[in-house]
């Protein structure tokens, strides 16, 4: 069944086009830094915000027109229709990847066994669509935060029975990943944290989460399907404090529990903002630890303090993010997943297409701007000059090669009388020139 017959396949038409359903900047075949945009930008469609989000919020009822969710009454029939609509959107946009939570694609039913059966049926349908279109699974994950059983966490729960239920969902998720040839598998700890330390043993909960991740690794090995495991940091919401607060916190956890060989990070713009960071900061931290795996593409609102998941349109922010991604050598086998939702007032079916065009164009602009900076050696040159005293002087070289001692450094400082030559960073000028690269 088709739901978007009135919308043509979206093509690149350039900035002069007046066609709403055309790319102005994303040209899949345009070569940037030796690769086509399609190769550089592994765009992925998110099932949850695209298909299941209905526009309701704490202040109002649903607003979205979603024919694929209202043209049947049986939950499984609706689930099948949603799969058809989902793949139709990807084909309209020329996307080659997708992501989903287990509860997005199939109703949970009255038991885990029924949920398993529903997942089997719907993933059979998804696999048929994948084989038909060539579209690939970027990653899947288990929703272990919506069901009331997870009110106190999943792997960090206070209940051994809940811990076992979480394990059941992860086992099924990995079976599905193998079935659909997923390259990554995400853990987002929606309720892995605490609401109060008054009744929480944080060390115990972190130990249990470490054990849980090792169980997942062991099972993946046992079925001969070991995807790249990804942790998605977020500091708060829904818990007051979540254990994967930011990239640095997540890396400390992975190092402590000896998981760095199996896990990388899936970073999100809006989550970075909630942690008090920029997106480029989080990407840089992950890159520093050789742990940048994949990203969720969205943005927050400067005036709102929660996870608004808006489509990315801030070119300067995304250009700096793409700079970090390109310096990382790209995202492989990760990609750029649009974990973004249309605004409640953008309720028509066509808005799903228009919003993704906006996001894809933003990342295309950012890719070209970041590539130009790299080709000009712009930021690299500034950084190299800032640290040149460590590379171009005997004193600096002695520090880097380990031949310096505390005494030799102190003697040098005493001989020079503590005098140093300071140089301006010219940061305002640097930012001014940066604007020239915003294509």
From TrEMBL:
Enumerate the UniProt keywords alphabetically.
Carbohydrate metabolism, Cytoplasm, Isomerase, Magnesium, Metal-binding, Xylose metabolism
Q: Boundaries of each Xylose isomerase-like TIM barrel domain copy?
A: 103-282
Q: Name one Pfam family in it.
A: AP_endonuc_2
Q: Cofactor(s) for this protein?
A: Mg(2+)
GO annotation, biological process: D-xylose metabolic process
Location in the cell reads: Cytoplasm
Entry EC number(s): 5.3.1.5
List the SUPFAM superfamilies hit by this protein, alphabetically: Xylose isomerase-like (SSF51658)
Chief place of localization: cytoplasm
Protein name as catalogued: Xylose isomerase
Q: Which organism is it from?
A: Lactococcus hircilactis
């Amino acid at each position: 069944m088709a739901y978007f017959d009135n919308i043509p396949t979206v093509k690149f038409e350039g900035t002069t086009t007046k066609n709403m359903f055309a790319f102005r900047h994303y040209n899949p075949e345009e070569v940037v830094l030796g690769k086509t945009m399609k190769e550089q930008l592994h765009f992925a469609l998110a099932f949850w915000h695209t298909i299941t989000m209905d526009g309701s919020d704490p202040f109002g009822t649903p607003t979205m027109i979603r024919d694929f969710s209202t043209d049947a009454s049986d939950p499984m029939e609706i689930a099948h229709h949603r799969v058809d609509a989902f793949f139709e959107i990807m084909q309209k946009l020329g996307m080659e990847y997708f992501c989903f939570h287990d509860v997005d694609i199939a109703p949970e039913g009255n038991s885990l066994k029924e949920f398993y059966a529903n997942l089997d049926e719907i993933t059979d349908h998804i696999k048929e669509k994948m084989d038909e279109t060539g579209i690939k699974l970027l990653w899947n994950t288990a929703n272990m935060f919506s069901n009331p059983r997870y009110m106190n966490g999943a792997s960090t729960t206070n209940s051994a029975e809940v811990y076992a239920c979480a394990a059941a969902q992860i086992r099924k998720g990995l079976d599905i990943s193998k079935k659909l040839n997923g390259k990554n598998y995400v853990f987002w700890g929606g309720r892995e944290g605490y609401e109060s330390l008054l009744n929480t043993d944080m060390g115990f909960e972190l130990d249990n989460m470490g054990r849980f991740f090792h169980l997942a690794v062991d099972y993946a090995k046992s079925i001969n399907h070991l995807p790249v495991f990804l942790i998605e940091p977020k500091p708060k919401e829904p818990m007051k404090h979540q254990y994967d607060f930011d990239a640095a916190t997540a890396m400390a956890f992975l190092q402590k529990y000896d998981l760095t060989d199996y896990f990388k990070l899936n970073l999100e713009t809006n989550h970075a903002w909630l942690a008090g960071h920029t997106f480029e900061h989080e990407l840089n931290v992950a890159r520093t630890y050789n742990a940048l795996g994949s990203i969720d593409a969205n943005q927050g609102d400067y005036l709102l303090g929660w996870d608004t998941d808006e489509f990315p349109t801030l070119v300067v922010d995304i250009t700096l993010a793409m700079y970090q991604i390109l310096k990382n050598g790209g995202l492989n086998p990760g990609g750029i997943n649009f974990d973004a939702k249309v605004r409640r007032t953008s309720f028509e079916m066509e808005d799903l297409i228009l919003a993704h065009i906006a996001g894809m164009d933003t990342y295309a602009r950012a890719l070209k701007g970041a590539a130009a900076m790299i080709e000009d050696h712009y930021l690299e040159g500034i950084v190299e000059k800032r640290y040149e005293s460590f590379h171009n002087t005997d004193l600096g070289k002695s520090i880097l090669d380990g031949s310096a001692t505390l005494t030799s450094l102190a003697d040098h400082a005493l001989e020079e009388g503590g005098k140093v030559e300071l140089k301006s960073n010219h940061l305002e000028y640097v930012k001014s020139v940066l604007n020239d690269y915003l294509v």
